[in-house]
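General statements about sequence and structure are easier to judge against a single worked case. When preparing material for the folding task, we compiled for one chain both its residues and its backbone structure tokens. The amino acid sequence and the backbone structure tokens for this protein are reproduced below:
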Amino acid sequence: MTKIKTLTIQFDTPLRRSEIPLFRGAIIAAIPSSNILFHNHDGTSLRYSYPLIQYKRIGGRAAITCIGKGVDTIGQFFSINKDHKLRIRDKTRTFPIQNLQALQTEIQCWDCSFDYRIRDWLPLNETNYKVYTETTSLIEHIKILEKILIGNILSLAKGLEINITSTIDVSITAIENIRSVRYKRVPLQCMDIQFKSNLSLPDFIGIGKHTSVGFGIITKKNNVKK
């Protein structure tokens, strides 16, 4: 099965990038059940798989993207939190829903090209960071990042139990806003990119590292026939 359902919930509440982990923690704290999909661990061990509930910042405001089983699971939160209030830091804030976007997307390769953006992508780990920084060639940088991007896509597909048998083509067309960010006190290389691919992907899902807290958000720009 390659068709995946997604639900993106956008709230009418401003949220800073640094507050996304706190937003995630506030939702987890509001739920008496211990459903592993909300936090990807069961108290003793981690769920080493693609997160099906992802906490984000879209348009400067709080958001949640649910994928597959996460779409059904998120109802547990809204059935309990009917006043839409969450406590972040020392303040209780209201999170009214601004927009809902429900989609079903075929994750597969096509005979056409899709244009995408990825915001706040974390492509580099300790190993490939060394390889990446050893060259100053933009062409080599793009080749390295394209290889990492295909690996990220395959990891995403595996986490969603999708077997992609066709060749995935990616072509990075722009690298923007390269900067250093810190997550859990660890410095990470972060960037925004634009790329083309023959693979269809849902809007607002995350790709790469730390997708549960809003890194690596994909959005489709438009479709271009080859």
